[in-house]
Description:
The protein is of the alpha/beta class. It is 40% helix and 21% strand. The chain is built from eight helices and eleven strands. The strands form three sheets. A five-stranded mixed sheet has the order 8-9-3-10-11, sandwiched between helices. The protein has a four-stranded antiparallel sheet with strand order 2-1-4-5, with helices on one face. A two-stranded antiparallel sheet has the order 6-7. Helix 3 (130-143) packs parallel to helix 4. The model is unreliable at 1-6 and 265-269 (pLDDT under 50).
Amino acid sequence: MSTINTQTLPLLEVQDVSKYFGSVIALKDISMKVYAGEVMCLLGDNGAGKSTLIKILSGVHRPSEGQYLFEGKEVHFTSPRDVLGSEPTKGWGPFRRFDVQHANHVTREELSRMGVQVRDTGQPVGTLSGGERQSVAIARAVYFGAKVLILDEPTAALGVKEAGIVLRYIAQARSRGLGVIFITHNPHHAYPIGDYFTLLNRGRSLGTFAKSEISREELTGMMAGGEALEELSHELAEFARTDEKAAATLTEVAREFGAEAEGLHVEQLPAKFTKSEQQYADQLPPTDGEGKR
């Protein structure tokens, strides 16, 4: 009987996965794998299929085709709860209840390991900053024995400082031997932390690349589409040329209007206009010494 060596196998792998919604092809033949102690970045613009793939990985959707393997064995999740842990409880049967004291102790300890200090572990997560909420999610997954972290756009809508904090937490999770799938549409966040990069475009894979095989600029170009960027560059150049012509035309028109305005100066008005103005003044009643009429 053969023995599976989990050290040489990826923690999580999908092979030729496809997902159909009626006649709509959301994903087609996507393959990806993540190993322990590595960060796999899944990149793609809006509509690339990232969300659909993540829902397959987290058990929300079952793939229409292909295989989903965990530590070399094919798995079939029926719901997200199949891949989640559970909260600490005490008591038994109908008297089982949430263990608040134990939860507070574990929360403070796990967050401390991630480098996060909180004043009150009972503070609602919704009142935390974006970076702190992400750290809580990561610490919770690590505590419940997660081997793979799936982070869907964890740096979206975060400022530069908070995004940096989240990337630091991802690095810490990697150093603790977890496999991390980091989903993002921002190559500037993915490239510093990623070991491998899988790119999606309209439900299809553009390939998987090691960091040594692709530069940040190439990554950005593939995400946006090299041809699209080149076309946009030509359009902007043409607009600049057109704008220069328009500016020159407006300058000439302004010069002509200026010349006409000078020609309408009151000192150069026709003599009959000046005569009419004087007749109007003569018809006004005389004024006294104080200028009153």
